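Now for one record.
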Amino acid sequence: MKGIPRIRIAARFCGPPGAGNGGYTCGRLDNLTDYTSEVTLRQPPPLDKPLRVEREGDLLQLMDGGLLIASAQPGTVEFAAPAPPEWERVVAASHKFIGFKSHPFPGCFVCGPERATHDGLHIFAGRVGEEPLFASLWTPEAELANDNGVVKNEFLWAALDCPGAFAVSGGVMRKVVLGRMAARVEKDVMAGERCIVLAWPKGQDGRKFFSGTAIYNQNRELCAVGDAVWIEIP
């Protein structure tokens, strides 16, 4: 129907095999809002298929025919992010990324070690020393940015997504998928600048795990924060 927005998630932006990366999908839906979004994923986002967006007041629903894929509503991200570690500690943490040894979704656009150079985001968050803090370097490439060199919103959401999964997993690789995510972008991230992505665990309730994430730019300024709920699957 004319005038109804459509979202198509290209196969390149997968998370689990055959499904869109959760953070990327949430960011695409957030692009259609004018508020701080809390996005809930109801089903694995299908790839290479036009998905309809329905709007009712502040509520947005991403639909695959009659199936609800995700919904967005106003949310908040109220916690303070930890200060970023020194660059050397971030590099050392990335080298300890447990996904290099065991990864449930090795082809993930954000954190998959099987992705070729210049294909994925290559965000490999490892533990910082013995702290409950995980960190990775990230230098976003020019293709992720708009004409002004600013990294697009959906890729910031993607970057804020996967590190949280490794933070809640700790030293044991849990198979978790994103259930809900809220994010707040405070400052533009420019393509080509060296960034730090942080993640930390925020607790557990049964099969639900909670994480916080943050992006700092090369001047160590806070650019974005994310708050996520993860669901452990068999």
